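Figure 6 in text form: structure in, sequence out.
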Protein backbone atom coordinates (compact mmCIF):
# COMPACT_ATOMS: atom_id res chain seq x y z
CA UNK A 1 0.00 0.00 0.00
CA UNK A 2 1.33 3.40 -0.96
CA UNK A 3 2.20 5.34 2.20
CA UNK A 4 1.11 8.56 0.46
CA UNK A 5 -2.50 7.38 0.70
CA UNK A 6 -2.59 8.30 4.37
CA UNK A 7 -2.18 11.98 3.52
CA UNK A 8 -4.88 14.34 2.28
CA UNK A 9 -2.34 16.40 0.32
CA UNK A 10 0.81 14.25 0.14
CA UNK A 11 2.97 16.58 -1.98
CA UNK A 12 1.84 19.91 -0.51
CA UNK A 13 4.45 21.86 1.43
CA UNK A 14 2.73 23.54 4.39
CA UNK A 15 4.07 25.78 7.13
CA UNK A 16 2.06 26.43 10.29
CA UNK A 17 2.95 29.60 12.18
CA UNK A 18 2.10 29.45 15.88
CA UNK A 19 2.91 32.57 17.93
CA UNK A 20 3.16 31.80 21.65
CA UNK A 21 3.71 33.82 24.79
CA UNK A 22 3.58 32.05 28.16
CA UNK A 23 1.35 29.28 26.84
CA UNK A 24 2.92 26.29 28.60
CA UNK A 25 -0.46 24.87 29.62
CA UNK A 26 -2.31 25.50 26.35
CA UNK A 27 0.32 24.75 23.71
CA UNK A 28 0.35 21.06 24.66
CA UNK A 29 -3.35 20.86 23.77
CA UNK A 30 -2.80 22.61 20.46
CA UNK A 31 0.20 20.54 19.37
CA UNK A 32 -1.24 17.21 20.55
CA UNK A 33 -4.38 17.79 18.44
CA UNK A 34 -2.45 18.60 15.26
CA UNK A 35 -3.67 16.30 12.45
CA UNK A 36 -1.02 13.87 11.23
CA UNK A 37 -2.67 13.11 7.89
CA UNK A 38 -2.38 16.46 6.10
CA UNK A 39 0.90 16.13 4.24
CA UNK A 40 4.29 14.54 4.64
CA UNK A 41 5.80 18.01 4.19
CA UNK A 42 4.35 19.80 7.23
CA UNK A 43 6.40 22.15 9.40
CA UNK A 44 5.07 23.65 12.62
CA UNK A 45 6.92 26.87 13.38
CA UNK A 46 6.45 28.02 16.98
CA UNK A 47 7.50 31.60 17.63
CA UNK A 48 8.16 31.91 21.35
CA UNK A 49 7.73 35.63 21.92
CA UNK A 50 9.88 36.01 25.01
CA UNK A 51 8.03 33.55 27.26
CA UNK A 52 9.16 33.25 30.87
CA UNK A 53 7.60 29.82 31.41
CA UNK A 54 8.19 26.41 29.80
CA UNK A 55 6.55 27.22 26.46
CA UNK A 56 9.74 26.65 24.45
CA UNK A 57 10.64 23.44 26.26
CA UNK A 58 7.21 21.93 25.70
CA UNK A 59 7.05 23.03 22.06
CA UNK A 60 10.50 21.56 21.38
CA UNK A 61 9.37 18.20 22.77
CA UNK A 62 6.91 17.96 19.85
CA UNK A 63 9.66 18.32 17.27
CA UNK A 64 8.57 21.72 16.00
CA UNK A 65 10.76 24.37 14.42
CA UNK A 66 11.33 26.71 17.35
CA UNK A 67 12.21 30.38 16.90
CA UNK A 68 12.71 32.42 20.07
CA UNK A 69 12.47 36.14 20.70
CA UNK A 70 14.72 37.02 23.61
CA UNK A 71 12.14 39.52 24.81
CA UNK A 72 8.42 39.98 24.30
CA UNK A 73 7.88 41.96 21.08
CA UNK A 74 4.15 41.50 20.60
CA UNK A 75 1.87 39.23 18.60
CA UNK A 76 2.46 41.08 15.34
CA UNK A 77 6.22 40.77 15.62
CA UNK A 78 5.89 37.03 16.29
CA UNK A 79 3.68 36.53 13.23
CA UNK A 80 6.05 38.60 11.12
CA UNK A 81 9.01 36.50 12.23
CA UNK A 82 7.10 33.42 11.17
CA UNK A 83 6.15 34.89 7.80
CA UNK A 84 9.74 35.86 7.04
CA UNK A 85 10.86 32.32 7.83
CA UNK A 86 8.11 30.85 5.63
CA UNK A 87 8.99 33.18 2.77
CA UNK A 88 12.52 31.78 2.74
CA UNK A 89 11.23 28.20 2.86
CA UNK A 90 8.82 28.65 -0.09
CA UNK A 91 5.84 26.84 1.41
CA UNK A 92 2.85 26.28 -0.87
CA UNK A 93 0.44 27.31 1.90
CA UNK A 94 1.03 28.98 5.25
CA UNK A 95 -1.44 28.64 8.14
CA UNK A 96 -1.50 31.00 11.11
CA UNK A 97 -3.14 29.80 14.31
CA UNK A 98 -2.83 30.66 17.98
CA UNK A 99 -1.13 28.44 20.54
CA UNK A 100 -3.88 28.82 23.17
CA UNK A 101 -6.14 26.09 21.67
CA UNK A 102 -8.89 28.53 20.80
CA UNK A 103 -8.03 27.75 17.16
CA UNK A 104 -8.54 23.99 16.90
CA UNK A 105 -6.06 22.40 14.45
CA UNK A 106 -8.77 20.03 13.17
CA UNK A 107 -10.03 22.86 10.95
CA UNK A 108 -6.76 23.14 9.01
CA UNK A 109 -8.03 21.17 5.97
CA UNK A 110 -10.93 23.65 5.69
CA UNK A 111 -8.36 26.42 5.18
CA UNK A 112 -6.39 24.47 2.59
CA UNK A 113 -9.26 23.41 0.32
CA UNK A 114 -10.29 26.90 -0.93
CA UNK A 115 -6.72 27.74 -1.93
CA UNK A 116 -6.34 24.47 -3.81
CA UNK A 117 -9.79 24.30 -5.41
CA UNK A 118 -11.58 27.66 -5.32
CA UNK A 119 -9.01 30.01 -6.84
CA UNK A 120 -8.44 32.06 -3.69
CA UNK A 121 -5.16 33.09 -2.10
CA UNK A 122 -6.32 34.07 1.37
CA UNK A 123 -8.68 32.36 3.82
CA UNK A 124 -9.91 33.84 7.09
CA UNK A 125 -11.99 32.21 9.81
CA UNK A 126 -15.40 33.41 10.95
CA UNK A 127 -16.39 32.40 14.48
CA UNK A 128 -19.81 34.05 14.48
CA UNK A 129 -21.90 31.37 12.79
CA UNK A 130 -21.57 29.50 16.04
CA UNK A 131 -22.41 30.90 19.45
CA UNK A 132 -19.51 32.83 20.89
CA UNK A 133 -19.66 34.62 24.23
CA UNK A 134 -18.07 38.05 24.02
CA UNK A 135 -18.66 41.42 25.64
CA UNK A 136 -20.81 44.21 24.24
CA UNK A 137 -17.71 46.40 23.94
CA UNK A 138 -15.88 43.78 21.87
CA UNK A 139 -18.95 43.25 19.71
CA UNK A 140 -19.18 47.00 19.07
CA UNK A 141 -15.49 47.27 18.20
CA UNK A 142 -15.71 44.39 15.73
CA UNK A 143 -18.79 45.90 14.06
CA UNK A 144 -16.97 49.24 13.62
CA UNK A 145 -13.97 47.49 12.05
CA UNK A 146 -16.29 45.49 9.75
CA UNK A 147 -17.95 48.74 8.70
CA UNK A 148 -14.56 50.19 7.77
CA UNK A 149 -13.80 47.35 5.37
CA UNK A 150 -17.24 47.47 3.82
CA UNK A 151 -17.27 51.26 3.39
CA UNK A 152 -13.67 51.98 2.36
CA UNK A 153 -12.50 48.74 0.74
CA UNK A 154 -15.91 47.47 -0.43
CA UNK A 155 -15.06 44.13 1.14
CA UNK A 156 -17.19 42.02 3.47
CA UNK A 157 -15.23 40.63 6.41
CA UNK A 158 -17.33 39.07 9.16
CA UNK A 159 -14.58 38.47 11.72
CA UNK A 160 -11.63 40.80 11.00
CA UNK A 161 -9.93 40.27 14.36
CA UNK A 162 -9.74 36.50 13.94
CA UNK A 163 -6.13 35.45 13.54
CA UNK A 164 -6.82 31.94 12.19
CA UNK A 165 -5.84 32.34 8.53
CA UNK A 166 -4.30 30.66 5.50
CA UNK A 167 -2.10 32.34 2.88
CA UNK A 168 -1.01 31.10 -0.50
CA UNK A 169 2.63 31.34 -1.49
CA UNK A 170 1.75 34.38 -3.63
CA UNK A 171 0.43 36.27 -0.61
CA UNK A 172 3.39 35.30 1.57
CA UNK A 173 5.83 36.54 -1.06
CA UNK A 174 3.88 39.77 -1.53
CA UNK A 175 3.41 40.75 2.10
CA UNK A 176 5.72 43.20 3.83
CA UNK A 177 4.34 43.87 7.30
CA UNK A 178 5.58 46.08 10.10
CA UNK A 179 2.92 46.25 12.83
CA UNK A 180 3.89 44.83 16.20
CA UNK A 181 0.37 44.73 17.61
CA UNK A 182 -2.35 45.17 14.97
CA UNK A 183 -0.76 43.05 12.25
CA UNK A 184 -4.06 41.24 11.63
CA UNK A 185 -5.62 44.44 10.29
CA UNK A 186 -2.52 45.56 8.38
CA UNK A 187 -2.60 42.18 6.65
CA UNK A 188 -6.25 42.58 5.66
CA UNK A 189 -5.75 46.11 4.31
CA UNK A 190 -2.86 44.93 2.14
CA UNK A 191 -4.33 41.59 1.04
CA UNK A 192 -8.06 42.12 0.46
CA UNK A 193 -7.81 44.67 -2.38
CA UNK A 194 -5.29 42.56 -4.33
CA UNK A 195 -6.20 38.89 -3.81
CA UNK A 196 -9.28 36.72 -3.91
CA UNK A 197 -10.28 35.59 -0.44
CA UNK A 198 -12.83 33.42 1.31
CA UNK A 199 -14.30 33.19 4.80
CA UNK A 200 -14.89 29.82 6.44
CA UNK A 201 -17.01 29.12 9.50
CA UNK A 202 -15.28 27.57 12.49
CA UNK A 203 -16.03 27.13 16.16
CA UNK A 204 -13.76 29.15 18.41
CA UNK A 205 -13.00 27.39 21.68
CA UNK A 206 -12.59 29.02 25.07
CA UNK A 207 -9.14 29.14 26.59
CA UNK A 208 -8.63 26.28 29.03
CA UNK A 209 -5.95 28.07 31.01
CA UNK A 210 -4.91 31.68 31.55
CA UNK A 211 -6.36 34.73 29.86
CA UNK A 212 -5.61 36.83 26.83
CA UNK A 213 -3.03 39.58 27.24
CA UNK A 214 -4.92 41.75 24.75
CA UNK A 215 -6.96 44.66 26.11
CA UNK A 216 -9.88 45.30 23.77
CA UNK A 217 -9.79 49.05 24.45
CA UNK A 218 -6.08 49.35 23.67
CA UNK A 219 -6.46 47.02 20.70
CA UNK A 220 -9.32 49.06 19.27
CA UNK A 221 -7.45 52.37 19.42
CA UNK A 222 -4.33 50.80 17.95
CA UNK A 223 -6.45 49.46 15.10
CA UNK A 224 -7.95 52.89 14.45
CA UNK A 225 -4.45 54.38 14.28
CA UNK A 226 -3.32 51.55 12.03
CA UNK A 227 -6.27 52.04 9.65
CA UNK A 228 -5.40 55.72 9.39
CA UNK A 229 -1.73 54.96 8.80
CA UNK A 230 -2.09 52.21 6.21
CA UNK A 231 -5.24 53.35 4.42
CA UNK A 232 -5.93 57.08 4.79
CA UNK A 233 -2.35 58.36 4.95
CA UNK A 234 -1.22 56.63 1.74
CA UNK A 235 -4.25 58.02 -0.12
CA UNK A 236 -3.60 61.52 1.18
CA UNK A 237 0.10 61.12 0.41
CA UNK A 238 -0.64 60.17 -3.21
CA UNK A 239 -2.92 63.20 -3.52
CA UNK A 240 -0.32 65.62 -2.15
CA UNK A 241 2.44 64.08 -4.27
CA UNK A 242 0.33 64.63 -7.36
CA UNK A 243 -1.00 68.13 -6.74
CA UNK A 244 1.46 69.83 -4.37
CA UNK A 245 5.05 70.60 -5.25
CA UNK A 246 7.87 68.94 -3.28
CA UNK A 247 9.05 72.29 -1.92
CA UNK A 248 5.64 73.11 -0.47
CA UNK A 249 5.26 69.60 0.94
CA UNK A 250 8.63 69.87 2.68
CA UNK A 251 7.72 73.30 4.03
CA UNK A 252 4.46 72.23 5.61
CA UNK A 253 5.67 68.78 6.64
CA UNK A 254 3.27 66.80 4.48
CA UNK A 255 6.08 64.36 3.70
CA UNK A 256 5.49 62.73 7.09
CA UNK A 257 2.36 61.16 5.61
CA UNK A 258 4.49 58.83 3.52
CA UNK A 259 4.36 55.36 5.08
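Output sequence:
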Amino acid sequence: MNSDNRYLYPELKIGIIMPAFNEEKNITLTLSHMPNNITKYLDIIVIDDGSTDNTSKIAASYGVILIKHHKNKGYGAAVNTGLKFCKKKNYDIVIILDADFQHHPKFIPKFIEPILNDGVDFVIANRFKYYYDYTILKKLCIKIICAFYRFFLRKKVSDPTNGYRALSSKVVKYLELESKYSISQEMLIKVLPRFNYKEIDIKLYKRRYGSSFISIKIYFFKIIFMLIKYYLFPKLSRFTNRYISPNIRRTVGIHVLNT
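Caption detail: Residues 3-132+161-211 form a domain with the Spore Coat Polysaccharide Biosynthesis Protein SpsA; Chain A fold (CATH 3.90.550.10).
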